[in-house]
Each structure stands twice: as structure tokens, then as C-alpha cells.
Amino acid sequence: MSESLTDLIEAAAVEFRLLRRLFGEAGEIAWDRTLDWLVDEYFRLDVLGLENVPAEGPAVLVANHSGAWGLDAFVLMKVLTRSLRRPLYIPAAPLTFRVPVLGSYARRKGAFPIDPTLGLEHLNAGELVGVFPEGIAGLEKPLHERYRLRPFSPGFAVTSVRAGAPVVPVAIVGAEEAYPKLGEIPALARLFDLPYFPLTPAFPLPAKWLITIGEPIEPPARPASLAERSAAARSLCAEARTAVQDMLDHEVGRRETPFW
């Protein structure tokens, strides 16, 4: 291969990487503006209890996971970061970072690959960490089971006890109606290598969203033995799940219609 041709290929590769980065940045800006519009105009989202999030120091925000596509994670990150002027770090499954634009956007806004410590280093640095302990099981709920919490994984409680960080329960109402799961399409799940592929509207329905933040739950002093630490984490996990479910029941029960 001639030197001039090699130089041409290398220059083209540089240009391609530059264009890909520019298109990626443009896509992230467009998604950020779309989120602002969804939150403020389309979902008309209200937030109650912002004063329950510590103004400084670490805390673990524990929320229900709902809606077929998991849009609630992006909305929660957007709203709390904007309102509190504090970053919210969310552990996310590897699938999140595989999605073009959304993956890079999530990482830039504070999402990080999920690991066994669930953000312990962020808590030790005095930061906020948000978790969805139902995991993908929360997104797989059929419409008739909406707002009924699946079991919580206790990992966040273990991390809370280790860091001495309070747990702040968060209830998200509206996502179940915005992206209702009407069924599944296994063939598409296999095609795209996804845990599941929901049958749901291509664009979210105009549901009214409400995020309610409950009072912090202080973790117990870290016990000395492993057995005692495990018991303390299980108790904290159960208390947080009960708090989130109670808030969901209250907010869903008092609304007249999901589409205000």
C-alpha cells in the first residue's frame, strides 16, 4: 500500500471518529432537551419532599422501578440533579451503556456500571446514590400488577450500613401508565440480545407523574459480626421497601385519573 493511500485512510479514520463524536454530542444534547420537555410539559411532573434529601453528606435514594422501558431512571436523575444541584449517581446494568446516545448520556450524568458495592465509594465521598432494588423485575411487571413492588435486593442496605448513609425512600408514580407493559415479544428480545422486549407504546403516553420523597431512614451502627450485619441489612431493606410501597399506595389511591 502506497504511503499516500495510507495517509488518506488514516485521515479518513480521524474524520470519521470526529464526526461520530460530534453526532454523539448532538444526540446527547437533543435527549437532554427532550427530557426537559417530557418532565416539564408532557408529564407535568411534581416533586414532593425534596427537603427530605440531605443538603450535604451521603444518602442512598431507594426508588421503585416501573414502566416498560425504565424511563424513570433518566427522569429521576434529571429532576433531582436539577432541583438539588447535587449529582445523583446511579448504578446501571451493562445494557444501559450499550444503547447509542443514551448510554453515553447516562454515563456523563452520573450512571456507572453496577458493581457489588453499589456506589460505596461515592457514599464515602459524601455523595448521593440512587438505586432501584427491584432491578429489571420491576420493569417486567404486567399492567395489572402496576405499583406492586417486587422483592428488593438487599445490596443497597448492605452498602448503607457500611457507609453509615441514610436510606431515603422514593415513590415514582406515572411511569407505569406512560409505558405500560402489555405483553412481551420474545423474538425481538433474542434478536437484540435483551432480557425481554416489551409490547408497549413506541412513545410514552401523557400520564401525570409524581415523585414523592419520604423521610430518611437512618441505618443502625455497623454491627461487629457478619451475621449481625446481614440481619441489620435485611431489616433496613424491608423497612425501605415498606416505606416505598406505603407511599405508592397513598399517592395512587388519592389520584382520580392517571392522565390529569
Give an overview of the whole structure.
With 260 residues, the protein is α/β, with parallel strands linked by helices. Helix content is 48%, strand content 13%. Strands 1-9-6-2-5-3-4 form a seven-stranded mixed beta sheet, sandwiched between helices. A two-stranded antiparallel sheet has the order 7-8. The longest helix is centred in the first third of the chain and has 40 residues, at 3-42.
Itemize the secondary structure elements and their pairings.
Layout (H helix, E strand, L loop, with lengths): L2 H40 L3 E3 L10 E5 L7 H14 L3 E5 L1 H5 L3 H8 L1 E3 L6 H5 L3 E4 L4 H4 L15 H9 L3 E7 L1 H4 L4 E2 L1 H6 L6 E2 L10 E4 L12 H29 L6
Parallel strand pairs: 1-9, 2-5, 2-6, 3-4, 3-5
Antiparallel strand pairs: 6-9, 7-8
Helix pairs in contact: 7-10
Multimeric organization: single chain
**Mean pLDDT rating:** 89
Q: Treating each run of at least 4 consecutive H or I residues as one helix, how many helices?
A: 10
**Biggest sheet, in brief?**
7 strands, mixed
